[in-house]
């Protein structure tokens, strides 16, 4: 009689669920701390996110995956925790944010696993994983840009902060279309994207603009630039695709500029 090997109780999917729940509980607990304690706790949450994700993906931790593929699993929980400062502290808000974060974090862990596996062999879920990774990159950038502008640190520091946040997000987003074990041209893509985002941030610090509009405008920049980079990495940056991105950027810019002008006039 053939004896089948026992399946491990903690499968990879169960690990992802466990990590998502633990980080969600940590996110909710942080909001019960004092303002001074929260920043230290958010740093611990980022360390926990990296450690738990690495534990769940232990078999795939090789090459540059331990740091490039871990960008979003670390930055996304950090962005949500920081942005949570700015939300109403009602119980219903905590519940909605906690549920959304748990679901989205689970999806992000699945995406991180897809990238890790696809760096070895072809996988059919790669396109879906890239779509999820792209959307969460834009969401993460929007939340972090909102937080940066909320601190009102001045034009210079704000510009450097936007550049510092943008670089790893661009690096991760571009790498997700090469999935190489070594960085080749991805670092240059990320540097160019971060510099453009810094220039946009520098310009709008002189505008009389609301913080949500500033974060939307910067997130739009991330959407357009990262989208163009990814299409170029895939070899599908056609003229029509570029026009669509530029049209989108133009429409968003006109809407935001119109709102700013209306505020100046009033």
Fold and architecture overview:
The protein is mainly α and 266 residues long. Helix content is 76%, strand content 0%. The chain has helices spanning 12-30, 35-56, 65-68, 71-84, 91-118, 126-150, 155-175, 186-204, 211-234, 239-265.
Quick structural summary:
The chain crosses the membrane at residues 16-33, 39-58, 65-86, 92-116, 128-148, 154-175, 187-209, 215-233, 245-265. Keywords: Membrane, Transmembrane, Transmembrane helix. Helix content is 76%, strand content 0%.
Which helices and strands, and how do they pair?
Blueprint: H1 12-30, H2 35-56, H3 65-68, H4 71-84, H5 91-118, H6 126-150, H7 155-175, H8 186-204, H9 211-234, H10 239-265
Helix pairs in contact: 1-2, 1-5, 2-4, 4-5, 4-6, 5-6, 6-7, 6-9, 7-8, 7-9, 8-9, 9-10
List keywords for this structure.
mainly alpha, 266 residues
Number of domains: 1
Shape: globular
Query: Structural class of the helices, strands and pairings?
Result: mainly alpha
What is the typical, i.e. mean, pLDDT? 89
Through-space gap between termini: 84 Å
The helix-strand sequence is HHHHHHHHHH
Summed up, the helix count is 10
Q: Which value, in Å, is the CA radius of gyration?
A: 20 Å
